[in-house]
Specification:
This is tRNA-2-methylthio-N(6)-dimethylallyladenosine synthase. InterPro entries: Elp3/MiaA/NifB-like_rSAM, Methylthiotransferase, Methylthiotransferase_CS, Methylthiotransferase_N, Methylthiotransferase_N_sf, MiaB_methiolase, rSAM, rSAM_horseshoe. The protein is built from 14 helices and 21 strands. The chain has 466 residues and is of the alpha/beta class. The termini are far apart. The structure holds S-adenosyl-L-homocysteine, iron/sulfur cluster and FE3-S4 cluster.
Length: 466
């Protein structure tokens, strides 16, 4: 299968296990966890790590020495599930030499396939859905006793509000904080409502507490996470805009980001709140999926092309410098060449800073799988995707070039990947900026950087002396 490698929030770190976590290894057992999918899934792994730590488990980054090997899975596209199957094979090869080892599947694939994972694959001892992580210790015990253990019950209330995630793979500067779970939207292509259940918001006090603790520990940026953050709602009074303001007020030095916004739900109130607070980053991930109103209707996105474009206009009226990114699915059921042209023209009109581009992958049980045939041949999907990617690459490069000569505020996240003599960090609009280190700067500090050049994905600059 051909799929463009992306730096998507939901696939950026796909395949990577965490490294460098400082969980003391108790005399007892060790766990290993590998995560796939969206940032919410990565954040769930941090909750699982916290639950296991309380049970006296230590972490290891080497699965061959683990007593409990966990894989937190994603079902969003077929390819994501295939990757997991391959990893399960690899784990089982090691298990043959370590008979006491337990292998558990967590997350969306566990929820989608349930006990079938135990029966079909025979590679798995535990299957645990996203709302059942509190029962993990009991299930591990059950599985240790030789029984196959499963809990895939979805909940209407669970938000793990009281559990402090153990930060895995952290740079110590930026962190993700889940503010809600589930999704009620039922986009016809999407498996998430089935794997994550009903939407529910997390208690704002626990969100604020977690963000404040992060700030006190030296973190300088939080990204508030949800499948549809704009429908956050607490106690009949607190909207997402209200929550954003409360998080922004923790400290002006704490940057606030959020993801993901559904175009139908992001309100003027949210846009004005963003404009009002200097520490709320001017960047919105606003997935369009398609530029054709007919396809958008089949996708059950509940907006039209015109409505989406009006929303973009509104964002730019309120925040002229706001970065905007998107997700696009090409080759959805019945998509014609004309529909495809409409997607290209919408991309030209908007000029996205970032885009995550996929071809349609039919997911069993979704509305689209039940209602429409997956009738666009793979070669057509591939060539349309290649065209979309190429157009985006050109537009994004133009936008990057427009930044040259400007000055921006950058939060230093760490060493540049290419050179230890350079820092890297992001500006307000979420663009990666690389620049030479200078005295008095370090991870977690803010600096003004003048942009002097760029590559397709990175701005290059020089620090301005204060
Ligand atoms: N809640 C987010 C998206 C979560 S999934 C939102 O509503 O925007 C991330 C992206 O994966 C989606 O925006 C969509 O572009 C893509 N995606 C979801 N289901 C897909 C499928 N069946 N095939 C291909 N891409 C899909
Ligand atoms: Fe899926 Fe749509 Fe919900 Fe996003 S909003 S998670 S695409 S159903
Ligand atoms: Fe996330 Fe994948 Fe599940 S994108 S919600 S881990 S299906």
């Amino acid at each position: 299968m051909f799929e463009i490698p992306t730096k998507n929030i939901d696939e950026r770190r796909q395949g990577e296990a965490f490294e460098g976590v400082q969980i003391p290894v108790a005399a007892g057992k060790r766990f290993y966890i590998e995560s796939y999918g969206c940032q919410m899934n990565f954040n769930d792994s941090e909750i699982v790590a916290s639950i296991l730590q309380q049970q006296g488990y230590g972490a290891t980054v080497n699965y061959t020495e683990a007593d409990l090997v966990l894989i937190n899975t994603c079902s969003i596209r077929e390819k994501a599930e295939q990757t997991v199957r391959n990893r399960l094979q690899a784990f089982n090869t090691v298990k043959k030499e370590h008979p006491g080892m337990l292998i558990g599947v967590l997350g969306c694939m566990a929820e989608r396939l349930k006990a079938r994972l135990l029966e079909e694959e025979k590679l798995v001892d535990l299957v645990i859905g996203p709302d059942a992580y509190r029962t993990l210790p009991a299930l591990v015990e059950e599985a240790g006793g030789g029984q196959k253990a499963v809990n895939v019950l979805l909940s209407r209330e669970e938000t793990y509000a009281d559990i402090s995630p153990v930060r895995l793979d952290s740079n110590g500067v930026t962190a993700f904080v889940s503010i809600m779970r589930g999704c009620n939207n039922m986009c016809s292509f999407c498996v998430v409502p089935f794997t994550r259940g009903r939407e529910r918001s997390r208690d704002p006090e626990s969100i604020i507490r977690e963000c404040r603790e992060l700030f006190d520990r030296g973190y300088r940026e939080v990204t508030l996470l949800g499948q549809n953050v704009d429908s956050y709602y607490w106690d009949g009074t607190l909207t997402f805009a209200g929550l954003l303001a409360r998080v922004a007020e923790i400290d002006p030095l704490l940057r606030v980001r959020f993801s993901t916004s559904h175009p139908k739900d992001i309100t003027d109130e949210v846009l004005h709140t963003m404009a009002q607070y200097g520490n709320i980053c001017k960047y919105i991930h606003l997935p369009v999926q398609s530029g054709s109103t007919r396809i958008l209707q089949l996708m059950n996105r509940t907006y039209t092309r015109e409505w989406y474009l009006a929303k973009i206009k509104r964002i730019r009226e309120i925040m002229p410098d706001c970065g905007i990114s998107t997700d696009i699915i090409t080759g959805f059921c019945t998509e014609t060449e004309e529909d495809h042209r409409e997607t290209l023209s919408l991309m030209k009109t908007v000029g996205y800073d970032l885009a995550y581009m996929f071809f349609y992958s039919e997911r069993p049980g979704t509305l689209a799988a039940r209602r429409y045939a997956d009738d666009i041949p793979e070669e057509v999907k591939k060539s349309r995707l290649a065209e979309i990617v190429e157009l985006h690459r050109q537009r994004a490069l133009e936008k990057m070039q427009q930044e040259i000569g400007k000055t921006c505020l950058v939060l230093i996240e760490g060493d540049s990947k290419r050179s230890a003599g350079d820092w890297c960090g992001r500006n307000d609009q979420n663009r990666m900026v690389v620049f030479p280190k200078a005295e008095g700067t370090g991870k977690g500090t803010y600096v003004q950087v003048k942009i002097t050049g760029c590559t397709g994905a990175t701005l290059i600059g020089e620090m301005i002396k204060a």
